[in-house]
Amino acid sequence: MTADLDRLTSWHADWSGLRVAVLGLSMTGFSVADTLAELGSDVLVVTETASEEYARLLPVIGASLWEGALDAVPDELIAHRPDVVIASPGFPPHHAVVAWAREAGVAVWGDIELAWRVRDKVLRPDGTPAEWMLITGTNGKTTTTQLTATMLVAGGLRAAPCGNIGVPVLDAVRDPAGFDVLVVEVSSHQLWYLSLSDAAGRVSPHASVCLNLAADHLEWHGSFDAYRDAKAVVYRQTRVACVYNKSDVATREMVEDAEVVEGCRAIGFDLGVPGPSDLGVVDGILVDRAFLDERRTNALELTTVEDLAESGLAAPHVVANILAAAALARSIDVPPAAVRDALRTFRLDPHRIEVVAVADGVTWVDDSKATNPHAAASSLQAYPGAVWVVGGLLKGVDIDDLIASRGPAVAAAIVIGVERADIVGAFARHAPTVPVFEVDHAQTEDVMTEVVALAAGVAQDGDVVLLAPAAASFDQFASYSDRGRRFAAAVNARIGKDAGDNHDRPSGPVGSG
Fold first, then answer.
1. Would strands 300-304 and 354-359 be described as parallel, antiparallel, or unpaired?
2. Were both Cys, which of 15, 230, 297, 458 would link to 412 (CB 3.0–4.6 Å)?
3. Residue 139 marked in a binding site
4. What is the Cα–Cα distance from 235 to 209, expressed in whole angstroms?
5. Beta-carbon neighbour count of residue 119 at 10 Å?
6. Which residues make Cβ contacts (< 8 Å) with residue 161, sequence separation at least 6?
7. What angle do CA 338, 160, 144 make, to 5 degrees?
8. Which residue range or ranges hold the Mur ligase C-terminal domain (predicted)?
9. Domain boundaries, the chain
10. What contacts 132, CB < 8 A, 6 or more positions away?
């Protein structure tokens, strides 16, 4: 068939016979293939490698598989003559298959566009699909997604955190129980694919936020400007509230430039005193001056910094995430009391400024999720004067500015990873009096043991040892989680505790109930 893609804007449209090529067979790619096979489309999955489980399941659901090198366009893909190519987020714009499809005039979608087009599979009691909220930013996306979903659930709504957080949006859309709101974490990769959408596939969320913007994923996007432009797509066609960070001018400019639905409001947040239409902090109290009729003269109390500290949520960047999540929740009429109740039980996931041990006057903190300089700067702001464990895979990002601004204040630096030279050189230029130690072990299992031994020799009573690498983990570890677990295990081994004692905290009631 020659598809009229403009008519494919409902689960109940006729998708049968649509020829689709799905790029990649991760969790996202499988959700795409499974959805389209259920709809009767002719699905070919093209991937470099397939897990045994997915390879076994594809013929069961009625999809075909081609497996092999993708440095060139496979003949089998060309022979399939796809009407649309749906790419997993890992495929960059310059990838051979993506470039071929665009040059050939074949529509290119991501999984988010497909999910939006079929979002009416399960309807709410009023006969409408679930509302969507989109969350992006260089840092804080997952925490803010979890916070928002927690607040919505506390307010009596059925909410599902999904997207880049680890649950494909298509799985949430197809859940037979249905939801009132989908809280969708979207990466810059997914947003780039959304930027290709025409009017028929354009997402129009209830509310959206870009939490912050700093250089990241430049090897994928090609430039900072391209990365910024992808992030800005989050605000496109927002209907009720565009939430932005008043302390990050780039996010405000995104909102100013966005094409939104008439009547949509710009809602700011930061740690300062809020103006009308903002959320902020007054004398240690988090307040809402955006979602109340008397916002020019009054404010609604949400929680206090003191209460947040009791739950380990008082770090400045976490408070900013809480304000952003509260803005999203308040935009759909979640009461302030529900926001407060949600925060009482919420806990951060492991590896996000997580205190893994306190011994001999030294606090050991795992912020392995700080995988870029912007995130590490927030960690260092929360723990000034720390013994800083830094390094890994820099992904083309310049770390010089971070060390120039934060390096002189640290007690010492312990540098790990394959790109140590850039970091050591930056300390020599900007913080020459700070002691710098290199860990050059090639074996993963030895790295954190040496890190902890060095840190224990440097840290004094009252110090913090902070793992905030400002870099990705894949040069030496399986993931940022693996890096954090190994750090915690090495710490606990040194102080004689079981490595699992501090990793059994719940992340908060963000389920659908």
1. unpaired
2. 458
3. yes
4. 7
5. 24
6. 145, 146, 148, 149, 167, 183, 185, 510
7. 65
8. 351-470
9. 18-105, 115-345, 354-495
10. 116, 119, 181, 182, 184, 203, 205, 206
Question: How is residue 183 written in tokens?
Answer: 């809280």
Residue 141 annotated as binding site: yes
**212 annotated ligand-binding residue:** no
Amino acid at 382: A
* Measured distance CA(77)–CA(472) in Å, rounded: 33
DSSP at 346: -
Q: Are strands 265-269 and 241-245 parallel, antiparallel or unpaired?
A: parallel
Is 166 annotated in some ligand binding site? no
Instruction: Tell me the fold of 18-105.
Output: Rossmann fold (3.40.50)
Query: What pLDDT shows up at residue 497?
Result: 54
The domain covering 354-495 belongs, at the CATH homologous superfamily level, to Mur ligase, C-terminal domain (3.90.190.20)
Q: How far apart, in whole angstroms, are the C-alpha atoms of residue 433 and residue 306?
A: 36
Is 137 annotated in some ligand binding site?
yes
pLDDT in tens, 453-492: 999 999 999 999 999 999 999 999 999 999 999 999 999 9
Closest CA to 328 of 129, 510, 146: 146
Q: How confident is the model over 249-308, as pLDDT tens digits?
A: 999 999 999 999 999 999 999 999 999 999 999 999 999 999 999 999 999 999 999 999
CATH code of the region 115-345: 3.40.1190.10
pLDDT in tens, 36-92: 999 999 999 999 999 999 999 999 999 999 999 999 999 999 999 999 999 999 999
